[in-house]
Amino acid sequence: MKRLQENRIDQITQYLQASKLDPELLPEILDHLACEAEESLWDGKSFEQIYQNMVNTADAQTLLNLSVDHQNLLAMEKSLNDIVFENRNKSYGAYDLRKGYGQTVQRAVVMGVAFFLLLVMFPQLYAKLIPDPKPDDIAYIVEATPVDIIMEEQPVPPAREEPDPVQKTVKSVTPEVLPDNEVPIEELPPVVDDLQNAQPSTETVDGVDNLEVIAPPVENAVAPKAEAAGVEKRKEETFTFVEQSPQYAGGNEAMAAFLRKNLKYPSQASRAGIQGKVFVQFTVGSDGKIENAAAVKGIGFGCDEEAVRVVKMMKDWMPGKQAGVPVRVRFTLPIAFQLD
């Protein structure tokens, strides 16, 4: 089959446009006329004859009638909103409101009916879920056992007998005269000169002067306790805030140098690109020693354990003081892990 050239198709298109054909019908009419023209060319007719017959058959009036009929058919398919807003701005908002008005009213009616039914059925549902108590329902059974109370009589204390008054006296012994052999000999304490070369004792013995006596050691002897019996040692208090905070020996610069030297970045955290701060909490004792080190907030991937390990390696701190006295202080130290 022979094909129309582009200039021939443009000539037919210009004719249809000049006849004021509806733009919606233009592609269909053009396709129909082009097909008939190609069939006529196959029969041996010239394009001039075909074009003249086309103009006579599809004249301007015929094309106008087709456009009017097409508009009428479209109007029958359009809704009232499309007819009202024809050739108007539909994107303003009023068109969408009118178009969705039916669905909005339908949803509002359904919700209203559902809410009304819920209000009507709520008392019945409540009565089924929580029934009214019945007279024969027993919630609790309380059994009371009678108790006999016997009043005990308090014993009457015996009457205290007051001693008879005694006359105040002063010791006054009448001296008695005895022979010399019956008079008891009074033991007077030794003088200082006698104790220079002798030890005090219950009796006087004529022995060796300055004799050193070595006592044997006592087996399984218990060392005396410095604390008094029955007195517990007072537990040392741990402070959070003190007048003078504990400090690393050498200051913050020395502590930073210690961390840079001993802190090792965990390989798994380095591979995962993990970085951040690990907060390690520990107690600085009154003697400056580190105790109870633990990570209270960390980033994982081995960084928490590494921070605790390095803190435990620190040497003794300068303890915190309260009222000038060294005390135990709870301290929190942030340790940063940062990739280069």
TrEMBL record:
Q: Name one Pfam family in it.
A: TonB_C
Question: GO CC terms on record?
Answer: outer membrane-bounded periplasmic space; plasma membrane protein complex
The text of the family note is: Belongs to the TonB family.
GO MF terms here are:
energy transducer activity
Give the coiled coil ranges: none
Q: Which organism is it from?
A: Dyadobacter jiangsuensis
- Biological process terms in GO annotation: protein transport; siderophore transport; transmembrane transport
| TonB C-terminal domain location | 250-340
Return the protein name: Protein TonB
Where in or outside the cell it occurs: the entry states: Cell inner membrane
Membrane-spanning ranges: 108-126
Output the PANTHER family linked to this UniProt entry: PROTEIN TONB, PROTEIN TONB-RELATED
Q: Which UniProt keywords apply?
A: Cell inner membrane, Cell membrane, Membrane, Protein transport, Transmembrane, Transmembrane helix, Transport
**What membrane topology is annotated for this entry?**
Single-pass membrane protein
